[in-house]
Every structure is written in structure tokens, then in C-alpha cells.
Amino acid sequence: MLRPLRDRIVVKPLERKASEVIFVVNAEKFNLGEVVATGPKVDSVRAGDRIRFGTIEDYLSYPEWRAANGEKFIVLQEADVCFVEEHG
């Protein structure tokens, strides 16, 4: 697993559920994920939080990392987090 430094966050992207009723052609990347690990200078999120991050325009891309089992993770900065989904 990755150990993020400074204000970096490792996120496992969560897949969107496709509608079974409406067919939509959408090439937009996913921007919802679960925090897996945080660097020592991260204050606003913790491992296990579900977050929405950044805008998914072409100019904004995040480094990807694939684990040995094929799982995909992305690395972003704390400033890229838009909000944390509250539980309950």
C-alpha cells in the first residue's frame, strides 16, 4: 500500500451505479471515493471517509496507482477535496 506524504490523500474511486432505465453516454471520470490513507499534514479527512473531489475537467488529473490485485487508487491533495459525506 502507499504511504502518502505531507498533505496527500490516497483514495479508492467508487464506481457510479448505472441506471437500468435510462441509457446515458458519459465519458466523465468518477469523482467520488473512499479515503484509504492520509499524509501527516491532513486535517479534514480520515481513512474510511467518503469524499467528493475536484472537478473532472481535462486539465485536472490525478496520479493513479494499481495494486498487485488490480485495484485502482488515486493520489490527490487535501485541497482537492470538495466535501466529506456525513454518516447517519
Notes on the structure:
By secondary structure, the protein is mainly β. The chain is built from no helices and 6 strands. It has strands spanning 8-13, 32-38, 50-53, 64-66, 72-77, 81-84. The termini are far apart. The model has no long low-confidence stretch (mean pLDDT 83).
| Fraction in beta strands | 25-35%
Radius of gyration: 14 Å
Helix content: under 10%
With helices defined by DSSP (H or I, 4 residues minimum), what is the helix count?
0
Mean pLDDT: 83
The strand count comes to 6
Instruction: Outline the low-pLDDT stretches.
Output: none
Helix-strand sequence: EEEEEE
Outline, from the CA principal axes? globular
Q: Structural class per helix/strand content? A: mainly beta
Q: For the terminal residues, how far apart are their CA atoms?
A: 29 Å
Largest sheet: 6 strands, antiparallel
The strand line-up of the biggest sheet is 4-5-1-2-3-6
